[in-house]
Amino acid sequence: MFPTVSHFLSYAFGIDIPLPFNTFGVFVALAFIAGYWAFTKELQRKEALGILHPVTRVETIGQPATLTEMISNGLFGFLIGYKLIYALLNYRLFVNDAQSVLLSLKGNIIGGILLAALFVYWDYKEKGKYKLAQPKQVKITVHPHELMGHMIVWAAVWGFLGAKIFDNLEHWDTFVQDPIGGLLSFSGLTFYGGLICGGAAVLYIARKNGIKPLHMLDVGGPGMMLAYSVGRIGCHLSGDGDWGIVNTHAKPFNWLPDWLWAYTYPNNVAMEGVQIPGCTGRFCMELPLPVYPTPLYEVIVCFILFLVLWRIRERIKLPGMLFGIYLMMNGMERFFVELIRVNTKYHVAGIAFTQAELISALLFISGLLMVVSAVRKGNKETS
């Protein structure tokens, strides 16, 4: 497995380059890029069809940099310099444990001050280039797809917070033992938490810019399915613990690769299992018994579902229907993979279920209701 990019480079090319990038994080970034592409394409298509429309804003130009702007830029520059210079001066430590370096209070004061001054000066000079003797107001047209940069930032921040909150709720016993570590750790993320909170943030931005919620939801369905598929590649390659239950059954087909049927996730970032003989360093654990590689199954299934959604999106005219189909597909996929996946189970009235099973069932029902509602509304408008 490849817990870091350096492990992959060593395996693929035989070169040892110490880099402070973990594989999971790289694929999370790629998932956002994939989602950005799909969202942008759909926003452009819907605008061309006249479903979405650009908005006009009034902005003031020609103003010099304000004190508030310079202070905020200075604080941001100080934070970057404080951490960046410290990380470069302690590069080996940064490579071995980037999380502790980034989340600790340790840093370089001189680096922070230098970058703070640079950021303030840059803001002052940039605003000074366009300063007018008399600032004026101008109207700016913003097309829907031009909002994606703003949306992606909000989705990333609130999605991460939601994923952490839902994960800590799911693993409450571990969280209460170390609440600060549970909140600040980069590991342990629940997809549905990210979907709910990140999606709510995107809907908020869309509504502020005149995009109706149902239209924005339809835009997001295919893109979220694609992003999830790409993100799960990182889960599989890094071995973050999202694997299945033990699978010691014989392969149903001889041609099926062992790693596609049952896998032990060597060098997993979850650091679970037994020590790998002869391995030194942080990521030297391997599961004692092979398990179902459920992240890989989700990569394949969700990419196929994305292709289906991408193919049918132009044929569906009823607002909310495409997103309803996405919710049904998402709910079904996750519900069935939970049957062979390791997860915390809750027991209510003699019924055992996981958090993901409960949410996926609710999503399927919600999707079904959205489809039915869209059809009824369409029939009513036709009649």
Automatic annotation (TrEMBL):
InterPro entries: Lgt. The chain crosses the membrane at residues 20-39, 70-89, 101-122, 147-166, 186-206, 295-312, 318-337, 358-375. GO terms for molecular function: phosphatidylglycerol-prolipoprotein diacylglyceryl transferase activity. Keywords: Cell membrane, Membrane, Transferase, Transmembrane, Transmembrane helix. One of its GO terms (cellular component) is plasma membrane. One of its GO terms (biological process) is lipoprotein biosynthetic process. PANTHER family: PHOSPHATIDYLGLYCEROL--PROLIPOPROTEIN DIACYLGLYCERYL TRANSFERASE (PTHR30589:SF0), PROLIPOPROTEIN DIACYLGLYCERYL TRANSFERASE (PTHR30589). Belongs to the Lgt family. This is Diacylglyceryl transferase. It comes from Pedobacter antarcticus 4BY.
